[in-house]
Amino acid sequence: MLPATVLGRFLVQDRYERELQLRVRNPMSQYADMLSRAMAVPVWTLDKAVANQFIQAVMRNPEVVSVEVFDESKSIFARSAKFKKADAKFLHEERPILLETKVIGTVMLELTTEHIEKELWADFLKLGLALLVQVIFSFILIWLLFERRIVRPIQELQLATGRLARGKLDQPLEWLRQDEIGNLAQGLDKMRLNLGRLITEREAQNIVLQQELNERLRAEQALKITEEKFIGIFQASPVAMTVLRKSQHYNMIDVNDAWVRQFLWSHDEILGDTDTQKALWRSENDFFEILRIVERDGEIHDYEAWLTCGRQEKIILCQVSGRMIRLGNEPLIILVQEDITEKRQNEQEIRNMNTTLERRVSERTQALEVANSELTVVLENLQRAQRELLRTEKMAALGSLVAGIAHELNTPIGTSVTVASTLAQHTDDVLLEFDKGMRRSVLEEYLKNAKTGADLLLRNLSKASELVISFKQVAVDRTSANRRVFALDEMLSELIVTLGPTIRKTRHDIILKVPPKLMMDSYPGPLGQVLTNLINNAFIHAFEGDYRGTVSIMARVVDEEFAEIVVSDNGKGVPEVNLGRIFDPFFTTRLGQGGSGLGLNIVYNLVNEVLCGNILVESELNKGTSFKITLPLAPKLNDDDVQVSAE
Fold this sequence. Notes:
Catalytic activity: ATP + protein L-histidine = ADP + protein N-phospho-L-histidine
Transmembrane segments: 124-146
Largest sheet: 5 strands, antiparallel
Distance between the termini: 108 Å
Domain HAMP: 148-200
Pfam family, one: HATPase_c
Strand content: 15-25%
Strand order of the largest sheet: 6-5-9-8-7
Coiled coil: 368-395
Number of strands: 16
Helix content: 55-70%
């Protein structure tokens, strides 16, 4: 039994490999090749319906578990799958989808060996059961042989002879002594055994032959199913396909409907006449070369040849690809003939257009170089004019500041002069009274007047001193870009004091909301100019007529490195169409009415280039405008760069 088991295992393993090759690997390779060709057009044209038709045709094979088509970006273009058992074995096949020579996607197939394994396992069980039955049967025969030879050797001889005559060989002939009867019994028993062995061998051979016949029938049925699927896919292909039979000197045995539409020959015309098949090829050398390559390599790709279409003798350029396959034991060649005539014409037209475009681009490039040279000169002139306007704007602002401070100083200094002259006059009167003999009441009145005058002098001179100190600090900051450590609230308070004359000429208010001792190591001059320009911009553009507006300046610490300053007003706002251009140089809505278009451009340049921050604007009509300035508490910029930027 052991040799039979070992031999049976090798037979089953050999049959398993043949079945696996015939029913799984070969169809899987054929399906992959077919789909890689057939999917090129649907993937390129994004036609998922046609792609799903091809996939469903392949999925009719029970061994096919899943078919996936990926596009060029590795995304799933089309997919179909069956239920997978966790313990089943699967084989995979992957092919690129080529459009000409470019990979535009991938086809992945997955087939299961479950059905083959089940069938082989069933056959293996049958073989084992047959061996077991044979062993049991042999054991019974041997047992009966010994039993009858020992217990009833002589008595059973006659019965055994009768049974032999009737062809019954299940009972052995037994004897007790070596005599003529014993020799006869021995000869008869040998004959019975020989007959039994021959009959058993014949039955075993019959069983083997029946199994082989069943296997052949199953293989023929599977081949028939495969052929039917192949024919369905072959006819549904949108690409012209031809099948050639090697045994018939590579005559065409079938063409699909796409081939008939492309070459304008009917099935009967092309398949029934070898002369017509030869006339298909403009040059027979191309046909022989294709056959030579396919026989050598087993396949051919992208071979270009001229072919004739129908009786009209129209010639088209085709790209021929193909592969040699086997259906059963018969070798066939499948050729795909794709019409690329229009494609090559388009490529030639594109090459001609590219030549023309290169000449036109060269001419345009020369014209643009001339225009760029002229624009460079105009831009340099514009930049010089912009720098000149910027200096004018700064000097005008400083002059306005000086005039306002001078006006503010006039009142406290004039009052102080008047009080001082009055005290001098009273002092002269007291001296005259002193020479004549001063009365106590006169001295008391003089002391009261002197105290009042001293208080007036002190208050007015203190006010003038504050104005001078603030003006001095602001003027120094405006005329230089020196970096220093300062408190933001104190710097803004000095700025508001300096702008006091300008603010009092209007009906508007300025509100400061700055946390105390917010220290910055930056450039107060450029920062003061930024805030001055924003305040003046609000006075000029945000408030019109008799409207009394409010400008709010708020500041806060964002984190350890940055602070935020928000300058907002409750004016008329900025139209949305102008928000994107509000920081552009020379852009103003009050051209010729006091607006130069440089105020906010100066603000933008100072914030970004000098203060190393950024500025954003938000506005809504009739609800006001808000400028958000984000500044580093200590910008990482050397003084040389700042001085250059300030100049």
